[in-house]
Design goal:
Blueprint lengths: L2 E8 H9 L3 E2 L12 H12 L7 E8 L4 E8 L1 H11 L21 H8 L2 E8 L3 H11 L8 H8 L3 H11 L2 H7 L4 H5 L2 H15 L6 H10 L7 H16 L4 H4 L6 H14 L5 H15 L10 H9 L7 H15 L1
Parallel strand pairs: 2-4, 3-5
Antiparallel strand pairs: 1-5, 3-4
Length: 334
């Protein structure tokens, strides 16, 4: 293979190539179409939002008998199929200008034009043999690291609940960094997204264990629609708005910058329904932090303080520890 040449292309190019029989979506080494409707809709929403998508790779050949070019899709078949199917009206997707998901026919003329003019990145394999193509295909579809639970869900699901968690987490990146709750590496590994998902599960079902299998089910049950999205978004916004009224040091310089404690704090604020003043909340959090970091040996502390201390240090995601922290925080805050 000579090289890979990268050139931009438009959604309209894909539509035209397919219409003219110049696009080969099913070379012999490609897998069959396997994307679900939520996965396809998520890609279209990504294009609507002008967010980046991975490069699509082609091998360009010439069909002398038909006197035409052929563009063999080496990598990106699922993405291209989703784009073409949306244009044909096969499914609906979220558009930032519409409250509900819309089909291609429901877009305005200007929105259709913008969609067709959306630019993609194309990689062209020049002078590539079949062997070269198979090697490139294998490299592009290999996994270089073990995925954690949050990354695995992000890869597995693409529907309404995933998009909800992504939006809620992305809207608060500045807050995560200011308060020190999530490090840059945590955010890179999607830990803040899993945090939002876990909060949502507890908002909906009440205080419970962290259980990956239940989070998986929550994603699965809300792939097509997430009926509780508005209610959960309102509750999250209320809690984070209260936190935003505090001095950042109240969180960043105390035990509440630890994710399990921050989780418990949000759950208590949700239970308070906005009825806690900023000054009294700051006073309570500093008092709790002082008791936790007291020089007194844990065995000699009041029973409630000792239980809280242990609930912050071991099995922090288990329901027993979450209940102890919840009850303790409520004594000071509510």
């Amino acid at each position: 293979m000579d090289r890979v040449d990268y050139q931009p292309l438009l959604v309209q190019d894909l539509v035209s190539w397919n219409k003219n029989g110049e696009l080969d979506l099913s070379p012999w080494y490609q897998r069959r179409a396997v994307w679900t409707i939520p996965q396809k809709a998520y890609l279209i929403n990504t294009l609507f939002e002008q967010k980046p998508v991975p490069t699509v790779y082609f091998r360009h050949t010439v069909d002398l008998d038909q006197d035409r070019s052929l563009r063999e899709v080496v990598d990106g078949q699922q993405r291209i199929r989703a784009i073409l199917e949306y244009g044909k009206g096969d499914f609906k997707a979220r558009h930032p200008a519409h409250k509900r998901k819309v089909s291609h026919d429901q877009l305005t003329a200007d929105q259709k034009r913008r969609f067709r003019e959306t630019q993609l990145s194309g990689g062209w394999l020049l002078g590539a043999s079949d062997g070269d193509v198979i090697e490139v295909f294998g490299r592009l579809n290999s996994v270089s690291k073990t995925l954690n639970s949050a990354e695995r869900r992000n890869a597995q699901f693409s529907g309404e609940f995933k998009q909800f968690c992504l939006r809620q987490a992305a809207d608060r990146v500045t807050l995560w960094r200011t308060l020190g709750v999530f490090s840059a590496n945590d955010i890179a590994r999607m830990q803040e997204i899993e945090f939002i998902a876990d909060l949502t599960l507890n908002f909906l079902n009440g205080l419970s264990d962290y259980r990956g299998i239940e989070l998986d089910q929550l994603y699965k049950d809300n792939e097509e629609e997430f009926p509780s999205a508005d209610d959960v978004a309102r509750r999250l916004e209320s809690c984070f708005r209260q936190i935003a009224t505090l001095s950042p040091n109240v969180i960043a310089d105390t035990i509440f910058s630890r994710q399990p404690l921050f989780f418990s704090l949000i759950m208590v604020l949700d239970a308070a329904k906005g009825n806690v003043g900023a000054k009294s909340l700051e006073k309570a959090l500093y008092a709790i932090n002082e008791r936790f970091n007291a020089d007194t040996p844990v065995a000699e502390r009041p029973k409630a303080d000792a239980q809280f201390y242990e609930a912050c240090r071991a099995s922090t995601q288990r329901i027993k520890s979450r209940r102890v922290r919840d009850q303790y925080l409520k004594r000071f805050i509510l």
